[in-house]
Amino acid sequence: MSNVTIFEHPLIKHKITLLRDKSTGTKDFRTLIEEIATLMGYEALRDLPLDQVEIETPICKTVQPMVAGKKLAIVPILRAGLGMVNGILALVPSAKVGHIGMYRDEKTHIPHEYYCKLPENIGERLIIVLDPMLATGGSAVDAINLIKQRGGKHIKFMSIIAAPEGVKALTEAHPDVEVYCGCLDERLNENAYIVPGLGDAGDRIFGTK
Ligand code: PRP
Ligand code: URA
Fold first, then answer.
1. Which residues pair with 159 in a beta bridge?
2. Which pTM does this prediction carry?
3. If you measure from the C-alpha of residue 59 to the centroid of ligand 1, how many angstroms do you get, rounded to a whole number?
4. Whose CA is nearest to atom 4 of ligand 2?
């Protein structure tokens, strides 16, 4: 699994534990999702493209590196991926944001696409796909298929909690995609929910259940 990074940082572990706790309410849940995305993003964006720009210090003119924000696209998978967007924008405020709408059928667990809008010139951008949950991997695999069909090439995927089944499906379908997971859980249950997981991420972010 050379393309997979599982985070071991104590701050990320601590915040994921708070996220899992069923007594954590919507407001804190949202804050934690954003904070974890920022901490993970710091590592996932390690190879961000840089532009050389001229600035003037109090001493002299100089050419120095700055993040080429226009060359980056953040693509949350709706709904739950939305919760991670501001956490990444805190690091790269000028990044463009696309959206892919997917929902899992409750019985078959097969994902269905309902929306796709990506920034222009997608083929020239580093694309960061966001979804806090990588369960069967179906949503991530299909979302990345859509991005590739529209010309996306350099793609990374970030999830906060992953199941081994999802990591396997995603890396087999898209071996070129770098995968970042806040933690790797035990397994899926009979409803394809991650165990121990955190429940339904979308419902917990938006307070819909
Ligand atoms: C959840 C989650 C992922 C997907 C993961 O979304 O946010 O997109 O399930 O499961 P998978 O790896 O088995 O595909 P859901 O379909 O519940 O939609 P929602 O975010 O709108 O609640
Ligand atoms: N989607 C979620 O929100 N949670 C899971 O555990 C699996 C899929």
1. 181
2. 0.95
3. 53
4. 200
